[in-house]
Amino acid sequence: MSLSISATQIAANLKDVRARLHQAAKYANRRDTDVSLIAVSKTHDAEAVEAAIAAGQLVFGENRVQEAASKFPALRAAHPGLELHLIGPLQSNKVKDAVALFDVIHTLDRKSLAEALSKEINRAGGKAPRLFVQVNTGEEPQKAGIAPTEALAFISRCRDHWGLHVDGLMCIPPVDDEPAPHFALLRKLAVQAGVKELSMGMSHDFEIAVTLGATLVRVGSAIFGAREPV
Ligand SMILES: *Cc1c(COP(=O)(O)O)cnc(C)c1O
Prior knowledge:
With 230 residues, the protein is an alpha/beta fold. Helix content is 45%, strand content 15%. It contains 9 helices and 8 strands. Bound molecules: pyridoxal-5'-phosphate (PLP).
């Protein structure tokens, strides 16, 4: 369940987030079009998503396959231009649904998932979401992601062994750390790997991420309001 928030408030929040993105891009000498805003609608219902669409937002992020599968097929049918990103962990038994549903998967974080994605993409006859590798920049034991020291080898292996093209890298810095060094590390790895997209920055740190090269920011609560704890 989401806390209730009005369509007017969602539109105002989106306008504010876009203005902040514009300022951050300008400050970093980047164009607005260099950064896509992913509106993270997890825990919020289809009505909240509709309000964001009405305010011009077409790119959304969800962290659970099942929740996205219950909300988005109907929204997509009504709004053909929608783009949907998976930003949460992907269990191997949900790979088939995820490949069918998402345009971009940000959380390729282990060999077994690379193998499962490769199989499913081949089985589905080429329908392939764009893939980002999640890097555990803080090397937190409880957090998903490839260790920074293993990222380059993993990306090569995705390509050479599993035939998967990796388009980007994603990170979630440790909550208590300054995010900037994590964003800088992710960018360095992307340059080394020859990977274009950088998915980094959330409600509290997306401006820093933009100045450090983010090409996608994942913003939830600054648009849809606070989530109830789950
Ligand atoms: C929920 C979530 C976000 C959005 O977080 P906010 O702080 O609400 O902006 C971004 N990225 C990931 C991976 C998330 O799970």
